[in-house]
Amino acid sequence: TITETDATQQGNFVASINGGATAQEDIVLSFTTTDGSAGASDYTAQSTVSYTITKGTSSVNIPVDVLGDAISEPTEDFTGEISITNANGQDVSLNTATATSTINDNDSASIAINDVSVDEDAGTAVFTVTLTGNIQDQLTADFTTADNSAVNPGDYTTNSGTITFAAGSVDGATQTITVDIIEDAIAEPAETFFVDLSNLVTTGTASISDNQGVGTINDNDAISISLAGFTITETDATQQGNFVASIDGGATAQEDIVLSFTTTDGSAGASDYTAQSAVSYTIAKGTSSVNIPVDVLGDAISEPTEDFTGEISITNANGQDVSLNTATA
């Protein structure tokens, strides 16, 4: 038994006289190898090669070259067989004419999947699985997609199956996995999903060095927000008027959109309404607008029509592509 390296080594069959007796005269043997799972690329075969247990000795080494490589492969074996071609008059028989030699491999291979980032209108995301090392026999691995912030079927289409690297594949060989991306008209942050590898099967030593590819879908939809004011008739008591910050076109927010609201006096001032400065309001996920209430103060004073201004700014869009169409009203 020998462990293969990247270079040629010598392994030895040994033909020996049972019981440690010595030959009185030379005993000439013929030696032949026969392939098992190991073949011509693994060792140097021999056919009817002559070896001699010389007079006065009890054994002879029969060297066989074991060929090194950088290929991941299973444990392999081959057989050697001897026959007696000249006993020089001695009464010699064969107790065990054949023996098996085993070659243990020292090479390994691995596969890894990459991460992919695509725009929502790309149509597909193509992941690449790369082989590191060389393989003798076929290598397969299963794959399946999994939701993260991106979900099936709204953002992408689930896919699963098996990738196959053919026997004899070399370092740097690749296989691809394609996932369909769903385009919509919704403004949303960049979202991610996974492609997971599992269940690697091959005959040699191999592993999965990176079993999860991350797919990022970059949104291509933008939304804008407009602020609308209000008109109210003053009474003797405090009333509430509402500015409305709404997403244009009636689209809905995929994530919260946080706004900051500030009032500025016009002809109306502190005696007419309750001012606000950098007060936070949120267009909640799944909605298209938010009311911004302002207290209008009543009195018994005859006065002209008065006005004041409200202004919004965006403090947190949570990754969405959001702009202001009308910031003041």
Can you lay out the helices and strands and say which pair or pack?
Elements: E1 2-3, E2 9-16, E3 27-35, E4 49-53, E5 59-66, E6 71-72, E7 76-86, E8 98-104, E9 108-113, E10 116-119, E11 124-132, E12 134-135, E13 139-147, E14 160-165, E15 174-180, E16 191-201, E17 205-210, E18 212-218, E19 222-228, E20 239-247, E21 257-265, E22 279-283, E23 289-296, E24 308-316, E25 321-326
Parallel strand pairs: 1-8, 6-12, 9-17, 10-18, 19-25
Antiparallel strand pairs: 2-5, 3-4, 3-7, 7-8, 9-11, 11-15, 13-14, 13-16, 16-18, 19-20, 20-23, 21-22, 21-24
Structure report:
The chain is mainly β. It folds into 3 domains: 2-104, CalX-beta domain (Immunoglobulin-like), CATH 2.60.40.2030; 109-218, CalX-beta domain (Immunoglobulin-like, Sandwich); 222-326, Immunoglobulin-like (Sandwich). It has strands spanning 2-3, 9-16, 27-35, 49-53, 59-66, 71-72, 76-86, 98-104, 108-113, 116-119, 124-132, 134-135, 139-147, 160-165, 174-180, 191-201, 205-210, 212-218, 222-228, 239-247, 257-265, 279-283, 289-296, 308-316, 321-326. The strands form 7 sheets. A 5-stranded mixed beta sheet has the order 1-8-7-3-4, with no helix packed on it. It has a 5-stranded mixed beta sheet with strand order 10-18-16-13-14, with no helix packed on it. It starts with a strand and ends with a strand. The mean pLDDT is 96.
